[in-house]
Write a structure and sequence with these properties.
Elements lengths: L1 E5 L4 E5 L6 E6 L10 H19 L3 E6 L6 H10 L3 H19 L14 H13 L3 E4 L2 E4 L15 H7 L14 E6 L14 E3 L1 H13 L5 E5 L3 H14 L7 E5 L2 E3 L2 E2 L10 H7 L4 H8 L6 E2 L2 H27 L7 H12 L4 H20 L3 H17 L12 H15 L3 H13 L2 E6 L2 E6 L1
Parallel strand pairs: 3-4, 3-9, 9-10, 11-13
Antiparallel strand pairs: 1-2, 5-6, 6-7, 7-8, 11-12, 14-15
The protein binds zinc ion (ZN).
Amino acid sequence: MIRLFDTQFSEIREIEPKEAGKFSIYVCGPTVYDRPHLGHGRFVLVYDILRRFLAYQGFDVRFISNITDIDDKILDRASKEGISPKEVADTYEQVWWETLDRLGVMRPDEAPHATDWLAEMVELIELLIESGAAYSTPEGVYFEVEKAPGYGLLARQDLSELRAGARVEVVQTKRSPFDFALWKLVESDEWGWQSPFGYGRPGWHTECVVMALGLLGEGFDLHGGGLDLCFPHHENERIQAVASGREFARHWMHNGFVMVGDEKMSKSLGNFETLENLLERFDSRSYRLLVLRSHYRSPMDVTPENSEDAERALERIDAFARRFTDLCERNHTVGADEGAMSRFVAAMSEDLNTPVALSYAFEAITGANGSMDRGQRDKAVAYAKAALAQLEILGLVVESKIDVPADVVALAELRVAARRAKDYALADNYRQEILDLGYVVEDAGSGFGFRRA
Ligand SMILES: [Zn+2]
């Protein structure tokens, strides 16, 4: 059983999939007009970790995340650069997947593109017009929120409360400021598509409805995304499905913001740092470790200090992996420590409590090292197997072996020969030479191993 905070009920609840043994997830993907920032990195990692854990729990997970390749921001960039919107979208989609690969994020089972779902969007909009949920104006087609019962569920506010807190947006032809565009009419020489409502472009909120229902079916298990998408985007998705008489997501999950120096991560604040910048400066696994160290619903701080601290923790993990990976692979009689595994699973099952789960993984590492030092080999292997399994579930790749250049290996062999000849001064010289080349040589049994200096 897994429990998660469900935004629509504002409480932690048991997540029961519609079909036993299966788990369907839709997560809103990027609008491909720029390089991904830290906020993108957080949401892909949060759902990657959830997905890995569900798979470990035996669920057959189907994970869909879209690519928004129709958007005014794409058009703006294309106009500025004098290229086509498709060229902009293709370029940044490529960057998106490359960055996800560097983060070790599993690719979605499918990544639908808005441009491939226009016919379905038009069909939904027609249905909403016919049922009276949407209306046409000289500017396009709008969804009428006043007529939709329950609008505001995900915002946890009804329309009157929303109105009280809203900035008054002046759009002459809309009946209510919260009505949102399903189809925007544009001039015939602009980027657009023909439709029964005229030449134009679909609104952003419609694509996710048709792609989620089209690929996962009605009443799919979980819809996720960043907290910034909760309202209005997700509420507007949900209300279109409801108004067209279809059951949408059974559960809603939202992850918190990324703060850089106490400010919410956003371009408008001018603290925009691309994920690639971060991945260039630090071990690419350090961002996953930072994400794991924060609860997914809390704001998350990213600073050079905590990134460096994450790198030190990774060093500890790698040192553990070098000591135990081979040993665990060779040992078929001892299993992972059951207590360590069940503590870990319990933490992950209770609203994906990764900070606690991660601390258990480190406890297992400490247990393995301590037991080994005391000569309790079986106990050490049991803890080590638990820790390695937990790190794998969290998607943290361990580096149990490092590629060492041949000249460094040659120096290490000379050092062993010098030690055998009891010429310790010479052996120390070799150690220093190896260090100067960026490696620390470690004695391991009758041979030697390395770690990066
Ligand atoms: Zn969406």
